[in-house]
Amino acid sequence: MIYTSDLRDRIFNLLESQSLAVLATQKDGQSYANLVAFAVSDNLQTMIFATSRSTRKFSNIQSNSLVALLADNRLNRPADLKDALAVTAIGKAMEANGAEKEKLSSMYLDKHPHMSDFISSPNQALIRVNVSKYIVVSNFQRVLEMNVDE
Amino acid sequence: MNEMVVPADLAKDHDNNFFGGKALALGKMIRGGFKVPFAVCLGTKAYDQFVDSTGIRGRIMLELGRKRFEDMRWEEIWDTSLRIRSLFNNTPMPDDFKKFLQEVIEPAFKDKAVVVRSSAVGEDSANASFAGIHESFVNVRGLESIIDRIKLVWASLWSDGAMLYRNELGLKVEESSMAVVIQEMIQGQRSGVAFSVNPNDNSQTVIEAVYGLNQGLVDGSVEPDRWLLDRKTGSIINHFQPARDKIVTLSSSGVAIKPLIAELALRPPLNENELAQVYRLVLTAESIFGAPQDMEWTFDGSDLYALQSRPITTPAKDNDSSRIWHMNLRRSFDSLKKLSIKIEEELIPGMIIEAVVSGDLKGLTNQDLAQEIEHRAEIFQKWDEIYMTEFVPFAHGVRLFGQVYNDIMKPKDPFEFVELLAESEMLSLQRNAMMEGMVARIKETSDLPGSLPLSCDEILNKMMDAFLKKFSGSFGGDLLARDGLLKILLEMTNYQAQKRIIDANGLINSKKAFLAHFRGEERKNAEELLDLAKASYRLRDDDNIHLGRIQANLAEAEKEGAKRLGLLHSISGVEIVKALRNPHYVPRNDMLPPKRSDKATPRQLVGQPAGPGIGSGPARVLRESSDLYSFKSGEVMVCDAVDPNMTFIVPLCSAIVERRGGMLIHGAIIAREYGIPCVTGVPEAVELIETGDMLTVDGYLGVITINRINPEKMK
User: Fold this and answer.
1) Which end of chain B is least crowded, N or C, by CB within 10 Å?
2) Rounded CA separation A146/B342 (Å)
3) Can you give the pLDDT at residue B316?
4) How much is the CA Rg of chain A, to the nearest whole Å?
5) How far apart are the first and last CA of chain A?
6) Of B239, B229, B151, B155, nearest in space to B196 by CA
7) Among residues B307, B260, B303, which one has the least CA distance to residue B282?
8) How far apart are CA B10 and CA B15, in angstroms?
């Protein structure tokens, strides 16, 4: 059971515990979903991931920056219905550059040290998502929302 | 399929995970040369196959996933357990699996009566005794009945007691599984239990014996002869002889308690020679198992059968009084009957007397008011305790009936049985009828040309006086209550309550259909059980109403105290009393609401489905009694607990949402009476939902969807 009093901690712990999230993007009315290795800031306001500039997701973000990310801790067992926690982040994606890119890269590599070669390739973009809201699903159907952009 | 089913003699140590402790013990006894009734063991794989192939495993997870187990009230655990039992009961055995069971059961037992026993993994080990927690069924005959009972034994893995116990032991629910022993039924003429070591004195052995079957001894309804023997020599140290008057024998299905014939009442069930045989049996068992044993045995003629053996477990320390309290709720039919008389003749009348308060609080000095608050608090505390120790266990009468009804009728809705109980006139329904009378009067007079203001209508005023006198409770006797009542009555005149007409014929038919399953003596018992359940159901409501009045009396006195001191409601009665007695005392704010995150907003909340139907409308969150008077027809009532004094506005509600959980609590009972969708047991309902939020309440699934129209309100 997620209570409102520990909602923030539960979101943070879940996002810290998962290395991959499903990214949802859209272009010309067609939605698209794929997995990304992500990291989250301590204040939950920023999520980051890296992608090649030639990917479909990058192209989609260029065309529509409103994205969603979903991370969860399901184990593909019947008890998931009871125990799994899913967190959806809704926000706006943009490529990070300059000093900001450096700062965010270091935050990203803290979580994914093995990705250092991956993100240093010149064709890679580091994408920053400014999260406006988290939607947390526990107990199969209990849904709480939390705004973080204030 | 030898992991699925084996004859008991082949159940070996390493099979414990497949066949459970009881089967393992039978295997050991047979191999040790004991005379044991023939048995086959259905392994945990059979359970797993059933719950996986039918989807029950996932559905159990959904049931248990509604909220944390620790957060469930005793009633919610009961309800969850009943719903799970109903899942097992109503799900047919898949054809191929049934064929498999037929090939095992029919050649093994033909048309003989059998006992279907639980054999849970970890059960009857030295560390954990599940004795009496899981179910066993005696005198079961024929493939269909045996299969039905197997499913119920599996379901007992999810009985309230079993869930609480596993939770206490820290066992994961998803890893729980259950094996079953199907054993030939021996119709012993003398039976009993034996402890190789007396738990109170390790130099002794204890043997207890009754005439007939030992079910009466095990459940406490027949008092046994009891011998204390010298453990080393077997010589008798002491023989306690009860008034032998009852015997448990087989009935057409199951067992029945009957009077013992006078001739047998005069002599003990065992002679010295037989006593010595039982003594040797239990000591041999101890040497085979390598630990002191607690055995069940029976004599069929001169043949002594060992029925089961388990290690003696020391009673658990009183480290979880809530579980012990909970387990004590399981009362037998006889003790419920006695409790019924006590409640109707002694406790309820006592409550009614103590709910009457005299005198005008405003006329009291501060010292006297402090004393009055303490006096009322004392009365409330006393009845609150009686409520937990007497009224709540009595509510179990409803459960007992519900379980019997569900086992026999297999209804789709596990709470269908409630309809058979609802014909009794409850106090809250009387109250609602009085309100309907007043509404009719208002409609009648306002239709008259040139009608006077309502306050001048003498007849209406008298009706309101009578109402407030009878149901003052949290209304109190002040003008605010009178105005509030009038507001609600006016609201009711504009709203056609959707009261469901209970189909009297349908009700009579379901009662007949239920009773038609019983014959002779059993029919009489079934009728008695139904009557007991009706009394239990009716009093469930009345006790709450009277307790509500007693609590309101206390609140009224505390409110007067707080008013005089210029304090807020967040001060406890204890602090108010201190401040009334001592003008220099500065009371502490000791009842502040818990801190919560201000940014979380609910989108969808989950509770227990307590009244079927879908309802939607704006929320009216009841935080204090004055919120009641603002209630508008068509709103969804959201509250911490439907107080008995709140139920009069139920006819105006489009749905009910309650933090407190349970199917047989006030909100749920009244919602069902009116056919209003209801979800109970919603954690933080009152904190999260705001008055004005648009709610859709799904009373089938126990889900509330929240649409907050004005996002500014979230901040």
Assistant:
1) C
2) 52
3) 45
4) 15
5) 26
6) B229
7) B307
8) 9
The CB-side HSE value for B429 (13 A sphere, CA atoms) comes to: 15
Phi, psi dihedral angles at A63 (to 5 degrees): -85, -30
Distance CA A44, CA B606 (A): 26
Gap from B225 CA to chain A (nearest CA, Å): 48
Q: Is B601 on the interface with A (CB under 8 A)?
A: yes
Radius of gyration of chain B (CA): 30
d(CA B373, CA B555): 9
Cβ–Cβ under 8 Å, residues A136 and B602: no
CATH architecture for segment(s) B5-184: 2-Layer Sandwich (3.30)
Check CB contact under 8 Å for B606 and A139: yes
Residues in chain B: 715
Comparing CB atoms, the residue among A4, A77, A135 nearest residue B597 is A4
Say whether A144 and B64 touch across the interface (CB within 8 A). Answer: no
Q: Which two tokens stand for residue B628?
A: 């009641």
Residue B324 has pLDDT above 90, yes or no: no
The answer to whether the Cα torsion of B285, B289, B293, B299 is positive or negative is negative
- Neighbour tally for B373: CB within 10 Å: 24
Smallest CA-to-CA distance from B306 within B331, B328, B330, B284 is with B284
d(C-alpha B357, C-alpha B241), whole Å = 52
CA quadruple A49, A54, A56, A59: dihedral sign: positive
**In whole angstroms, how far apart are CA B666 and each of B7, B545, B656?**
50, 9, 11
* B190-311 CATH: 3.30.470.20
Query: Could you tell me the pLDDT band of residue B628, with boundaries at 50, 70 and 90?
Result: confident
Answer whether B616's CB lies under 8 Å from B696's CB: yes
pLDDT tens for B514-567 read 889 888 878 888 888 888 888 888 776 677 778 878 988 898 899 889 888 887
User: How does pLDDT run across B681-712, given as a tens digit for each residue?
Assistant: 998 899 899 999 999 999 999 999 999 875 55
Helices (H), B8-142: 16-31, 44-54, 56-64, 74-90, 95-109
Helix %, strand %, coil % of chain B (to 5): 50, 15, 30
- Facing B600 at nearest CB: one of A1, A82, A144: A144
B599 contacts A143? CB cut-off 8 A: no
Quick one: pLDDT band at residue B713, thresholds 50, 70, 90?
A: very low
Amino acid at B205: T
DSSP E strand boundaries for B510-599: none
Q: Which residues of B421-451 are buried (b: 16+ CB within 10 A; e: fewer)?
A: bbeeebbbbebbebbeebbebbeeeeeeeee
The distance of A3 to chain B (nearest Cα, Å) reads 8
SS3 content of chain A, % helix, strand, coil (to 5): 30, 45, 25
Quote the pLDDT of residue B488.
Answer: 82
Domain ranges of chain B: 5-184, 190-311, 331-423+503-581, 604-714
Tell how strand B114-120 and strand B236-240 pair up: unpaired
Find the CATH number of the domain harbouring A22.
2.30.110.10
ipTM: 0.86
Strand-pair category, A142-147 with B703-707: unpaired
Chain position carrying tokens 């939770």 = B167
Domain range enclosing A117: 4-147
Residue B290 has phi, psi (to 5 degrees) of 75, 20
**pLDDT greater than 60 at residue B300:** yes
The CATH number that domain B604-714 falls under is 3.50.30.10
Q: What is the DSSP string of B19-37?
A: HHHHHHHHHHHHHTT----
Say how many domains are in chain A: 1
CA distance B363 to B573: 19
Q: Which comes out higher in pLDDT, residue B73 or A123? A: A123
The one-letter amino acid code at B303 reads D
pLDDT exceeds cutoff 70 at B132: no
